[in-house]
Amino acid sequence: MSNEVLLDKGLANESQNPLSSLLSRTKNMREFTLILIIIGLFITMSFASPYFLTWANMKAMLLSFSTEGIVVVGMTLLIIVGGIDLSVGAVMCLAMVFAAKLFVSGMDPWLASLASIGLCAFIGMLMGLCVTKIGLHHFIVTLAFMGLARGLSMIITQGTPISLFSLPPEFKYVGQGTLFGVPFSIIIFFVVVIISDYLLRNATAFRKVFYTGSNEKAAEYSGVRTDRVKLGVTVLCSALCGLAGIIYMSKFGAATPNFGVGLELNIIAAAVIGGASFNGGQGSVFGAILGIALLSVVSSSLILLDVSVYWQDFIKGLILLAAVAMDHLLHKKAS
Known about the structure:
Blueprint: H1 3-16, H2 18-28, H3 30-48, H4 55-80, H5 88-104, H6 109-134, H7 138-157, E1 162-163, H8 169-176, E2 178-179, E3 182-183, H9 184-202, H10 204-214, H11 216-221, H12 226-252, E4 254-255, H13 263-273, H14 285-304, H15 309-334
Antiparallel strand pairs: 1-4, 2-3
């Protein structure tokens, strides 16, 4: 009996008693620890600053990580499959710039946005083909495409931001509108997260991501088309970057060629803090979202405590280093 069938049977047994399964998993998941840490920070900051628990600050935190959270979903899947993407910030920037250029040239903003997301997916396909067909590593490929995407953004704009004052109100609603008092961009974020987390935990097709990342050779022997899985995840990650870039463009009504510089640090840190392992085969969307939520709470806390912006980057780097070290020690102990 193949590994894939055995794993799918295990999933079926868990689904027979979902409540007990959820409770047993929660006690042992890194997500539970992250939730406790976030709650602890909330309690501490509620005493340290009277502005922390205000709705204005809560909404600001949600807005700050909701769009990045869409990219974290793609990054998490890519790390689970055994890859990484250093180009996410540059691809988001290219999505904004390309869509903005098409719009000012006379194209409908919705069509321009679809074309831009399609371009990002095409870039993801090129990166995936470099990995699966040529045999290059994700790190080198995405590092190269980070420069290519950033360079294209500069070429398109000639280094000058594109202002989009004439965007129609219905398009601006995507990034600036609210539904029942909740920013619409946050609603998009929750929809993406809920769907992707459910599929990753329950859909057989998405379980192949774990099979490929855990043991690629065993997955191939079980009949999994691992190259197709890696290619699909790479395309999905870039397409989600495109979606996030369009939301940013709608939110700010402009496209700047230097947007997203260093964004990959936050995205990778969130995925790793949430439990995604660079060894592949481990991670969850929910955990990654908790990771970026933790980073957002830390950033908000540092701002409210008047900590220098330079120290903020230093502290985020320490958090990432601690998460990677923890991941390494856990795998060393397990082996």
